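Researcher: Quick sanity check before group meeting.
Model: Go ahead. Protein one:
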Amino acid sequence: MARKTSDGRRKKTVAVYFTDTAEWDIEAYHVTKSDEDAIISNLEATPVSEEDKLKGTVRYRQVRDWEVVFQIGSSEVEVMVDICGIRPPLEEPKTQKIQRALEKVATVRGTLGI
């Protein structure tokens, strides 16, 4: 239900829902109950943040080392946050790390004429 703020405006409640894919991610990536609760609390407290990354209507946010993928909807009385997926933060692939290291070596070799 909508609550009234001190200035008489209606304040919408925030409801967080998990899609089947998000539920599967929780199991697959062994997301702890503590982390799950932190994700829910974060999205309830701030459903829209300037720090969210956007791709179309899909939002991405980092919460406790997890990348949370979600969408936002609204009705007259609530803001609905649908969590579409949860995954560990993307790490640079090892092949890219090796390639960057080799590029540095090649640059030094080229500079020294070795």
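Researcher: Fine. The other one?
Model: Protein two, sequence then structure:
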Amino acid sequence: MNNLFKTSTLLFLSLHAAGFMLSVFTVLGFPGQINKETVFITTLSKILDVLLIAAWKGIPWLVAGSVIAFYFKYDIIAKSFCFLSLGIGIGLVITLITLYNVIP
């Protein structure tokens, strides 16, 4: 039972790595031109700026918080931190895909 708990913990902690890698892919960007014809671009760029700050400053704190929560057996809090980290990364990628006109 203890090994199963360790495996489950490592699986959830890998969600932090996935969220961080998605934020790294967002910083690297996609090839393509920004579609400047729409007014919606300013809103998306502001959302992207907020999510990037949240990712770079927040994901390390979420990792530390979830490791501490797993250590003290607060599984619901630790799992929510893991899913929040992954959600920030997915939000960054979706915002970047929407912001750029990837298909010419």
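Researcher: One line on it for the slide.
Model: The chain is about 80% helix and 5% strand.
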